[in-house]
Structure formats: C-alpha cells, structure tokens
Amino acid sequence: MPDPILEVKELNVSYGAFQAVKDVSFGVYGGEIFGLLGPNGAGKTSTLSAVEGLLHPVSGTVTVAGFDTREKPLHARANMGVQLQATSFQPELTIAEIIRLFASIYGVDLQDDAVKRKLAEISLEEAAGKKISQLSGGQQQRVSLVISTIHDPQLVLLDEPTTGLDPQSRRQLWERMEHFRNNGHAVLLTTHSMEEAEAVCDRIAIIDHGRIIAIDTPEALIEKHRHDPEVLKVVRKGKVTLEDVFIGLTGTAVRP
Ligand SMILES: Nc1ncnc2c1ncn2[C@@H]1O[C@H](COP(=O)(O)OP(=O)(O)O)[C@@H](O)[C@H]1O
Ligand SMILES: [Mg+2]
C-alpha cells in the first residue's frame, strides 16, 4: 500500500472547553474519494479546518503529501486545494480575470488559451467575460473548484460542496471529483447526504459527536451493520441502505 496523501492522526480540536473533534484518525489515498459523513455539528468542518491549517488542533498530526502541516505549513498548503465560497471572489472582476489572478497568486503561469481550456473543461467557455454574480450557483461552484485546483494539488478538500445545488449541477460536480480521482488525486469531502456518499465516495468515515464511529466502503458498511438491532429498527424499505446504517449508528434525534 502506498503512503496516504492525507494522513490525520489522533486529531483533537476544541473551542474553549468544548471538544468538537475527538481522537480522529484516517488516511486518504491517491485515486480515492473519501467522504466524511455526519449529522449537523458532528465535527466535519472542524476536522477540515484543522487539515487546512485554519485552526490549530489541541493535539494530533496532519500530514499532506508527506509534509506535517505544523512543521511545513507552506509545503503542505502547496499540495492542497481548498474550495472557496463564491462570495470570496472579487465581484468586479470577470471570471477570466479571477482565474488569472488566482493563478498568479499560486505562481502558475496561465496564458489566455489555458484559461479558455480551463473554462471549457467545466463547460463555461462563454462565461469568461461574465462577473461571478452573473453565474448560477452550480456554475459558481465549478469556477470555484477550477480555481482551488489551479496549482494541480495532490489533495482536494471540499466542505459540503453540493449543498443547495440542483441535481444537474450536483452531477457535474461529482464528475469533477471523479476526474480528480481518476488522475490519481486524493479527494476529501464532507457531506450529510447519504446519497452523495453512496454515489461518489470510495470510502467513508461516519463521524458523530466528534468521533469516527465507522470507516469503510459504503458497501462494506452496509454489509457489516445490516444485522445490527439499531439498524434493523430504522430500516425503511426492507432492503438495508447506507441511510439506514447511518441513522442506526448516529440515532434518530434531529440535530440543531
Ligand atoms: N467557532 C466555534 N466556536 C464554538 N463552537 C464551535 C465553533 N465552530 C463549531 N463549533 C461547534 O463544534 C461542533 C462541530 O461543529 P462543525 O465542525 O461545524 O460540525 P459540522 O461541520 O459537522 O456540522 C458543533 O457542536 C459546533 O456548534
Ligand atoms: Mg460543516
């Protein structure tokens, strides 16, 4: 087995006295889409923020492409692409200008025809001269993903990337993730959608109350837990689904 591109070991994250992430460990390999699946407040964003270096964990280590994010933050950062919110882009610039701006920030030399090719990859050739606010949510997401991966990072991080997207846009984003995966990149996404986890993730970790409670392929998780009493209690349609396993493992109480 090769080394994972992302390795998280015994990660603990706290906000004051409240511990949001508890002893979380997992690895994401090249050529893999890994999903962090959990209900609201489970600790998904906190885990991702610690990986991105946006918040300092109480303890634990995060390694990206072999670089410890605390010891070699710049090297680690250079190997990760973090999807930004469309709202963080300069509203007065055109899409082509934003792409060129971020390319220069990342130190990537991107000529006009390369910008065109990038836009063609996401079926947005005609958007080059438009402002970000003139695009639909799905189109904004695609631009955002192109920008976050402009330096061809080994690891791509996405926090609930498809929330609020229509089915077509969601499919397109899934295809982009599969494109990265098929090119040997490691993709880590968070989601509370079982459908998404089942549709695109090669492996998932179910996280609840800050702890990983299961980690495997969606199929293996269903197989492993199909006879659990908690799962059998919540099965909806006779056939055990990932959602039944998820609800069985995390409980039926609605999270705020
Ligand atoms: N800045 C913060 N200050 C205090 N508590 C926070 C902060 N951010 C998140 N939390 C708490 O940490 C827990 C995990 O949050 P989060 O990682 O955002 O969960 P998720 O992304 O899975 O919905 C929640 O209980 C949330 O209320
Ligand atoms: Mg979140």
Notes on the structure:
The structure is a single chain. This protein is α/β, with parallel strands linked by helices. It folds into two domains: 1-79 and 155-219, Rossmann fold; 84-152, no CATH class. Helices cover 37% and strands 24% of the residues. The protein contains ten helices and ten strands. The chain has helices spanning 44-52, 73-78, 95-105, 112-121, 137-148, 167-182, 194-200, 218-225, 229-234, 242-250, and strands at residues 6-15, 18-28, 32-37, 59-64, 67-68, 80-82, 155-159, 186-191, 203-208, 211-216. The protein has a six-stranded mixed beta sheet, sandwiched between helices. A four-stranded antiparallel beta sheet has the order 2-1-4-5. Strand 1 (6-15) and strand 2 (18-28) form a beta hairpin. Helix 3 (95-105) runs parallel beside helix 5 (137-148) and helix 5 runs parallel beside helix 6. The longest helix has 16 residues, at 167-182. The radius of gyration is 19 Å and the shape is globular. The structure holds adenosine-5'-diphosphate and magnesium ion (MG). Magnesium ion binds at residues 44-45. Residues 6-234 form the ABC transporter domain. InterPro entries: AAA+_ATPase, ABC_transporter-like_ATP-bd, ABC_transporter-like_CS, ABC_transporter_ATP-binding, P-loop_NTPase. This is ABC transporter ATP-binding protein. GO terms for molecular function: ATP binding. Belongs to the ABC transporter superfamily.
Name some characteristics of this structure.
256 residues; alpha/beta; Rossmann fold; 2 domains; 6-stranded mixed sheet; 4-stranded antiparallel sheet; 37% helix; globular; binds adenosine-5'-diphosphate; binds magnesium ion; ABC transporter ATP-binding protein
